[in-house]
Write a structure and sequence with these properties.
- It contains 19 helices and 23 strands.
- The chain is α+β, with helices and mostly antiparallel strands and 621 residues long.
- About 6% of the residues have low confidence.
């Protein structure tokens, strides 16, 4: 579905669509006849009323119509009608979002809606509120939420072309194992949510038919061009799944595209021309040499150096003296496992334990907390031979008494409810300006990232303020080094209520997707949403693509029934040997968000009951 301006020659057809849509609510012929003059569209008024049409992107058939009427700053949503047979497919939400975008751009501050009584709940769910003063119809008022400055900077005020080059980015820093390649293929699906309103997305994995259409309905997107299954490693995985072979046994064909998503795009001249021909900003998951060639915006040499955990720690140490609420763990470099073992043993004997890391790693991979001698040997065996980084383990500040906050700021105190794992997200725009996006609460289990929560109350205000100040200072240093794009700074809460920065990620991340979805929900549905990402929801049974999409569609309806929005984010692992899905949940109240998470997790586990053995009485067949 795409949205365009209405044409004078289709006035009669659009008037007929409006009347069919009105009749959907069961009005009799006499009532419809009385409404006919008011609902008839004339060719001469289309421009004045700013009429737009939602049409089928393939056939060009009109599916809905809407209008933005009156002069700014106070106008009206004059029409919003959808072809009856496609009601419920997100056409109305997309038209409403389009009108709000136009109103925002033209300086409208508020719009009145004289609604059909049957549509009041629809408008209220999208942020409109009832007001007095209407005539025979219920009147509502909607105020187009302003677009956040970081959204304008990230998208340059336009839709974007989004690249899921997760594995390609990671491979810059070391060879990926087969397991890491497979995981990066699943995680790359998040790239479809790496901008609030994509125009096109390119993914290495083949994604289930119907998944992006479901996202369009939930997030009020117009049509999105999807190019999937491009990466050679992903093609090998698909072949393995189709033959029940292990991924390592499935070799790509001789004529398969080069490994790496952007390299695969550049190997297809027609696709390259198409993506560049859109004339829109490119949003790679992470910057690589091929992504810079595709977008025409390469990074200078050395711009990614702070992706290194040792370089990040050195930067933290340099910035920390100006930030009294920040403490930086001491980091030592071990040439190999033997030296790392010696350093870790010293930390264990001190009673605190230690953290061992590889120089690069994502989602907690390559990072291990070691607090006992028994745990030391298995951890070292799982790590490469070297070099390795060993840090002090910082005790969870939530379990420790806090010192009084002095006037000199040397012992700042944070609230006792600060979560253990936090992150700051920001971006450096093309001009080198740093934009704060926000702070998020991360769900981390044994150093493995599982998801994040963003929005009001997700992070206590004082902790968020500390994270934003320090994260912004890091961004200024990144900008000076030539880096441009998204970045985050991860923290743990340490003793005395301080925040300890642990790493910098010079790429998009799981929390960044939560911020994108929140921005889109706030713009199109109003309010200040809480958004929670669940990147790994185990399924009780393996689901083929068709069954998965059907199940997700049912689940979106159940979540809507309790006032929550479900956005499926990772749909490619539902038929894996250990099946799972990723989702994001949005709501305006924390209780609603918690209820939606319980609903989703319960429904995922209930899938196993379909295949559970049934006890039958003895002798029965």
């Amino acid at each position: 579905m795409r949205i365009r301006e209405a044409r004078p020659g289709e006035a009669r057809a659009l008037s007929a669509l409006v009347l069919r849509s009105k009749a959907y609510w069961g009005y009799d012929e006499a009532f419809l006849a009385a409404c006919r003059a008011e609902l008839t569209i004339s060719a001469s008024e289309m421009t004045e009323r700013r009429l737009v049409v939602a049409e089928d992107a393939m056939s060009g058939e009109a599916l809905g119509v809407a209008s933005l009427e009156g002069p700014a700053p106070n106008g009206a949503l004059g029409l919003l009608f959808v072809e009856p047979r496609v009601i419920g497919r997100g056409i109305g939400r997309a038209l409403f979002a389009h009108v709000l975008d136009t109103a925002r751009a033209l300086g409208f501050e508020r719009l009145t809606i004289d609604s059909d009584p049957h549509a009041v709940d629809f408008y209220r769910a999208l942020g409109a509120r009832p007001v007095r003063g209407g005539g025979a119809l219920p009147r509502l008022l909607v105020e187009p939420p302003p677009r956040r400055a970081w959204v304008r900077a990230w998208t340059r005020g336009r839709r974007t072309v989004q690249l899921g080059n997760v594995g390609e980015f990671q491979a810059q820093f070391g060879e990926l194992t087969p397991l890491a390649r497979r995981a990066s293929g699943h995680y790359s699906c998040l790239a479809v949510l790496s901008g609030p309103h994509p125009a096109a997305v390119v993914l290495p994995e083949t994604v289930p038919p119907g998944w992006v259409e479901l996202l369009c309905r939930q997030l009020a997107w117009e049509s999105v061009e999807v190019y999937d299954g491009l990466d050679a490693a992903a093609q090998a995985t698909e072949a393995a799944r189709a033959t029940d072979a292990a991924p390592a046994e499935a070799a790509p064909a001789d004529d398969a595209p080069p490994a790496g998503l952007t390299a695969a795009i550049l190997a297809r001249p027609a696709l390259t021309r198409r993506l560049r021909g859109l004339g829109l900003p490119f949003v790679p998951w992470g910057h690589t040499e091929p992504s810079g060639e595709l977008s025409g915006e390469p990074l200078p040499p050395g711009a990614l150096r702070h992706e290194s955990k040792s370089a990040a720690n050195a930067l933290f140490q340099r910035l920390a003296p100006a930030h009294p609420a920040i403490t930086v763990p001491v980091q030592r470099t071990a040439a190999g496992r033997r030296e790392a073992a010696r350093l870790l043993l010293a930390r264990i004997r001190s009673g605190d334990g230690g953290v061992v890391k590889t120089e690069h790693g994502v989602g907690g991979s390559g990072t291990h907390v070691v607090r006992s001698v028994r745990a030391l040997l298995p951890v070292l065996r799982a790590l490469p031979r070297g070099p390795l980084l060993v840090e002090d383990y910082l005790t969870d500040g939530r379990a420790c008494p806090r010192s009084a906050s002095g006037r000199d700021g040397t012992s700042p105190e944070l609230p006792g409810d600060v979560p253990r794992d936090l992150t700051y997200d920001g971006l450096v725009d093309t001009a080198g300006t740093v934009h704060d996006v926000g702070a998020a609460r991360m769900d981390v289990a044994d150093t493995v990232y599982r998801g994040a929560s963003v929005g009001p109350g997700a992070v206590p205000e004082q902790a968020a303020s500390v994270a934003l100040r320090f994260g912004h200072a890091v961004g200024l240093e990144l900008a000076a080094s030539g880096y441009r794009g998204w970045y985050d700074v991860d923290f743990v809460t340490a003793t005395e209520g301080r925040l300890a920065p642990t790493e910098i990620n010079l790429r998009l991340t799981g929390p960044s997707v939560a911020f994108m979805v929140k921005a889109r929900l706030d713009e199109t549905r109003g309010g200040d949403h809480l958004v929670r990402s669940l990147d790994h929801v185990p399924l009780g049974a393996r689901l083929p693509d068709t069954e998965l999409i059907g199940w997700l569609e049912e689940l979106t309806g159940r979540c809507a029934g309790i006032g929550a929005v479900l956005v499926p984010s990772i749909p490619t692992a539902a038929f894996d040997p250990a099946p799972f899905v990723g989702v994001l949940l949005g709501a305006r109240a924390p209780d609603c968000l918690d209820a939606a998470e319980a609903l989703v997790r319960g429904a995922a586990q209930d899938l196993g009951r379909i295949f559970a053995p049934v006890d039958r009485p003895a002798g029965s067949t």
